[in-house]
Write a structure and sequence with these properties.
alpha+beta; Immunoglobulin-like; 6-stranded antiparallel beta sheet; 5-stranded antiparallel beta sheet; 23 strands
């Protein structure tokens, strides 16, 4: 019987396309990050944005500004000054100057506290924050003074970074813009926070000997497929390999393939039972390793079904990327992603978030 291609077949094809679209997981939208002279800015998948001033790069004691702003008409900016120095008092006061002139204009000291004696965060009040943002159009250096010690914060690139954030959030020429303000219009609503399922490993935990045999077989299979893609690890170092039962038949296998002074890169594979010949790479969105299945300094938690990673771009750990993935029963989906593309002494806690999600239990 020959089917005539007409309205009915077109409808069937459209329905099939819709079913495929619904069955195919959406790709995570990891946000952009961009450098503007001595500032860096980035936004996540909900258009929540952050801008940071970049320290000089060689000082042990540093100060930097951090501006955060959520998307949407009611998203209000917050501005904080962060310090890292030796022997900070539990409570102290700071004086600010803009290009040598007292700021705020009256030269009022701002109170500050430090919990651990090395790190302090000073939230700049909204009125002063607005004044500082406006002054950044012309000012070049914000100087922070604690008693006899001073820290300099460059404002070069700050206006461009904030203008870029306005553009990302759809605020240009509206009253809520940071830089290019208008008299009418509103910023669009923030995109919804995606719900990403994370399913614990439900299979019976593998015995030590069984896991060792599986990782040994997987390492041999990798060497057979692509001999140069994975280094042999020294004796005693293969305890970084691992194998876990994701369910009754599917196994997750991690093979350490390269190591350096501060990073260990591992390939992750999905194996049905013990058949490594049919193993397939576990793809990670946003990863840049071999077949996008390689993560750096990664750790799998079978209780949550989540893999965390922390890829250092250098030993100080002040640049690179970090985040986590969750197993949803079919794939590892991005749960969180932070990044710092400039090696300028910014600590990991202040790396810019480029993707975030709301977790849920997978069915």
């Amino acid at each position: 019987m020959t089917m005539r291609r007409g309205a009915g077949s077109k409808s069937a094809l459209a329905a099939l396309g819709l079913m495929f679209a619904l069955a195919t997981p959406a790709q995570a939208q990891i946000g952009p990050i961009k450098t503007f002279r001595d500032w860096i800015a980035g936004c996540d998948n909900t258009k929540s944005c952050t801008a940071l001033s970049l320290p000089g790069g060689t000082e042990d004691d540093i100060a930097f500004l951090r501006l955060d702003r959520p998307a949407g008409p009611d998203g209000a900016p917050t501005l904080a000054l962060k310090l890292r120095a030796q022997k900070l008092k539990p409570s102290f006061a700071i004086a600010l100057t803009l290009d040598g002139a007292p700021f705020p204009a009256a030269g009022r000291l701002l109170p500050a506290t430090s919990i651990d004696g090395e790190v302090a965060e000073i939230t700049i009040p909204p009125a002063e924050a607005e004044a500082l943002i406006a002054a950044a159009r012309k000012a070049t250096i914000l100087t922070t003074t604690i008693e006899t010690e001073s820290f300099k914060v460059s404002l070069a690139g700050s206006v461009a970074a904030m203008l870029w954030i306005d553009e990302q959030q759809g605020r240009l020429n509206t009253p809520t813009a940071l830089i290019r303000k208008g008299t009418t219009g509103t910023a669009p609503a923030a995109p919804p926070l995606p719900v990403v399922a994370s399913k614990p490993a439900s299979g019976k935990a593998l015995a030590k000997a069984e896991a060792a045999a599986l990782t040994k077989a997987m390492r041999a299979e990798i060497k057979r497929r692509e001999p140069d893609s994975c280094e042999d690890m020294p004796e005693g170092f293969t305890d970084t390999d691992g194998a876990w039962a994701l369910d009754g038949t599917l196994r997750l296998v991690a093979i350490a393939c390269s190591r350096g002074a501060y990073n260990v890169s591992s390939q992750f594979w999905l194996v049905g039972g013990r058949d490594v010949a049919k193993a397939r790479p576990a793809p990670f969105e946003g990863a840049s390793g071999k077949a996008a299945s390689e993560l750096v300094n990664a750790d799998f938690d079978a209780k949550t079904g989540q893999i965390s990673f922390y890829a250092k771009a250098r030993g100080l750990g002040d640049c690179g990327s970090s985040g986590s993935y969750g197993w949803d029963g079919k794939r590892f989906a991005v749960l969180q992603w932070s990044e710092m593309s400039e090696c300028r002494l910014i600590p990991g806690d202040d790396w810019i978030t480029l993707f975030r999600s709301k977790g849920s239990a997978a069915n």
